[in-house]
Amino acid sequence: MPEPTDPSDPTAVSATPPAPGPCGPYLRRRGRSYQTVEGVRRGLVAVIQAVERNTLDVARARVLIYGLSTLANLIESSDLERRIEALEQAAAGRVQ
Hints:
By secondary structure, this protein is an all-alpha fold. It has one domain. It has 2 helices and no strands.
């Protein structure tokens, strides 16, 4: 394992292992919510950073990235569906 570096360095490697979280010891949740695309984006960033710190296996990261990407697409689709529904209701209200 690489030696710890300056804690102010965002790429610093910690000598202490991270606390376990719902995705394992390499991803701490830290209030992350996967209900919005922004939350999923933060999750993707955490996975990439864990790979860069060598605290997450690349094969496991690939699975998490695929899942998070799929989740982001589902959130976007749901949002578009809600918007279309609102537009259709507004248009139906004007026609009557």
